[in-house]
Amino acid sequence: MKRDAVTCGGCVVSAVGVVGALWLWAASDRTQRHLGLKFENNGQDFGAALVELPLVVVVGAVLPGLGWGLGAWLLTRRGRGRSQVHG
């Protein structure tokens, strides 16, 4: 059951990372400029948004997942080392 909880936690962290990355990307001035949310859609460039959006989603999912996995690995490694000394 513990392994299922760790796996579920990693998925949740990745999902939150994607939502957070998308929110930060959409709120940035650079993205607003590319999507043409200025006066009369001045400087609208959907090509930049189409290139950046997949990268934002991938990085938002991968980095939190890697951090979660590294933390889980370090905690299990530390616990395993302690049980071998006392066992």
Q: Cα distance, first to last residue? A: 23 Å
- Count of domains: 1
Q: Which stretches of 5+ consecutive residues score pLDDT under 50?
A: none
Determine Rg (CA atoms, Å).
20 Å
User: How much strand?
Assistant: under 5%
Helical proportion, percent range: over 70%
- Number of helices, where a helix is a run of at least 4 consecutive DSSP H or I residues: 3
- What structural class results from the helix and strand content? mainly alpha
Rounded mean pLDDT is: 81
| Number of distinct beta strands | 0
Shape, per Cα inertia axes? rod-shaped
The helix/strand series, from N terminus to C terminus, equals: HHH
Biggest β-sheet, characterized?
none
Keywords:
single chain; 87 residues; mainly alpha; 84% helix
Descriptive overview:
By secondary structure, the chain is mainly alpha-helical. The chain has one domain. The chain is 84% helix and 0% strand. The protein is built from 3 helices and no strands. Helix 1 packs antiparallel against helix 3. The protein is rod-shaped, with a radius of gyration of 20 Å. The two termini are 23 Å apart.
